[in-house]
Write a structure and sequence with these properties.
16% strand; 260 residues; alpha/beta; TIM Barrel; 8 strands; binds 1,3-dihydroxyacetonephosphate; eight-stranded parallel barrel
């Protein structure tokens, strides 16, 4: 089966410290990626206060804008929350949902489900994060990932599946330098595709991209794409280093074109 166009998303998390630094990070990232036209889709997810400035810096959306989270209501008395209409108005085209750092802060499967429903209605892409806290010899982590996915994607209309991206991010691999092996990532990718096929039929596999996240670096990117067979990455730490982030994008581009 022909693989998807690679998708590389940089999750800046709560970085950098100021708007000035965010501007520099964005411009350096753009410079390192270079001017050559790429097939690979690229997005960064800066903190909310920086989004509109990043939109101004990238009017062509060559580097797309993602949000790190969203609240499912669209307007009203919800202090501290940010809605989809707000995000869309500053150029956001995809939203990360259910990141393990949000789940650790108390976000529940039910809230994630509601966020995804709202995202699908709004027409932007949902990057749904799933992943186990730890691996056990009995393989219980498969059950954990399955429950997270089934809860998140229940009742998604089949016609909207192109808006769905699943990011497998094992919690133990995030920010630790300890990435999952390419073989383990491949096994999980097949497992995730089986869940998608179970719910929506086999042709749905072609529509839903599966990313990997957790200590992705330029040194492990190729194996994760070639052996892990993922459709791209959700990148934390390395997305704060423009050279490293661009190197991963270029590896994905060569992989996508079959030139690596
Ligand atoms: P790291 O790449 O820093 O491990 O973070 C991964 C992540 O959480 C991306 O959402």
């Amino acid at each position: 089966m022909k693989s998807h166009i690679p998708l590389i998303v940089g999750n800046w998390k709560m970085n950098p410290a100021t708007l000035g630094k965010a501007r520099k990070l964005f411009l350096d990232t753009r410079k390192e990626i270079g001017r050559k036209k790429l097939e690979t889709q690229i997005a960064v997810a800066p903190p909310f206060p920086f989004l509109s400035e990043m939109q101004r810096l990238s009017p062509s959306q060559r580097i797309g804008l993602a949000a790190q989270d969203v609240f499912f209501e669209s307007i009203g008395a919800h202090t501290g929350e940010v809605s989809l209409p707000m995000l869309k108005s500053v150029g956001v085209s995809s939203v990360i949902v259910g990141h393990s750092e949000r789940r650790a802060a108390g976000e529940t499967d039910e809230e994630i489900y509601k966020d995804i429903q709202a995202i699908f209605k709004s027409g932007v892409t949902a990057i749904v994060c799933v992943g186990e806290k730890a691996r056990d010899a009995q393989g219980n982590y498969f059950g954990i990932v399955e429950a997270q996915i089934r809860s998140a994607i229940r009742s998604i209309p089949k016609t909207k599946l192109k808006q769905l991206v699943i990011a497998y991010e094992p919690v133990w691999a995030i920010g630790t330098g300890n990435h999952a092996t390419a073989e383990d990532v491949h096994e999980m990718k097949l497992f995730i595709q089986k869940i998608i096929a179970d719910q929506f039929g086999r042709d749905a596999i072609k529509k839903v991209r599966v990313l990997y996240g957790g200590s992705v670096k330029k040194k492990n990117a190729h194996a994760l794409l070639a052996v892990g067979q993922v459709d791209g990455f959700l990148i934390g730490g390395a997305s704060l280093k423009p050279k490293e982030f661009a190197a991963i994008i270029h590896i994905a581009e060569s992989h996508g074109k079959g030139t690596l």
